[in-house]
Amino acid sequence: MDSTTFFAGKKFTLHEIQEVQDALTVEEILNISVNDKPYTMTMRTPGDEEALTRGILLSEQVYDHQEEHPVFSIVEKNDKNLITKVNVQIPFHQLKEGINTQRNLIAVSSCGMCGKNEMELAMEGDLIKPKHPLSIRLIGQMFQTMSLHQHTFKDSGGSHAAAAFTIDGKLLSVKEDIGRHNAVDKVIGSLLMNQTLNEAQCLLVSGRVSYEIVSKCFRAQIPFLAAVSAPSSMAIEYCIKTGITLIAFCRQDKCTVYTHPENVVS
What we know:
Number of domains: 2
Oligomer: single chain
Largest sheet: 6 strands, mixed
Number of strands: 15
CATH superfamily of the largest domain: Cytidine Deaminase, domain 2
Order of helices and strands: EEEEHEEEEHHEEHEHEHEEE
Strand order of the largest sheet: 10-9-11-12-13-14
Helix content: 10-25%
Radius of gyration: 19 Å
CATH topology of the largest domain: Cytidine Deaminase, domain 2
Structural class: alpha/beta
Number of helices: 6
């Protein structure tokens, strides 16, 4: 799947105007149905549709089985041969309460919670407790590994990345998307499909951390969350409440641990 496309433009400088052909990240709509009934629409970069769907359904408390895989089918494609509609068949007794709060608007690429019927998004459950501490020395290495797989970003500069690692820095999954939350959902979905979610101990994101990213990390029960950029105040508050160790401003062998620093060792 080609995640970039080319568009013509005029590049202005103080001294000249140049005709350019720039690579841009593709953004297309995806309609997701559950049991043949519309559930949500999301704007995303085409590719990994099944993983994206599985991640969304887990993070929004619609379907949380890790051992069973629901029947996923492609319903429609557009004139560019890009998938625009998918359906997931889930036995009624396996559906969780999230199916009753489906999104009724387009979820734009920048915000995974946009379009929710309700903003009742409290995260309930036991505190996430890592089995082992995370070595601060591994964080820079993990970000370097993720960067090596950011092919769309290298071509267009217009995509985000997310990646999941084991506690000792082994890469489990890395995905790119025009939306930060979509990249996370694709990673979580791929872990579910590969039955490696239980091995994931650290989630990396290429941008900032806001509430919705923390929510997805919590639903996936991943104890460490690390970001290149800043966290929001609400992200910190909910990491404190859920037990997630939040590490931000991870750049050039430097980082700031905002929550549960006892889980990090030098």
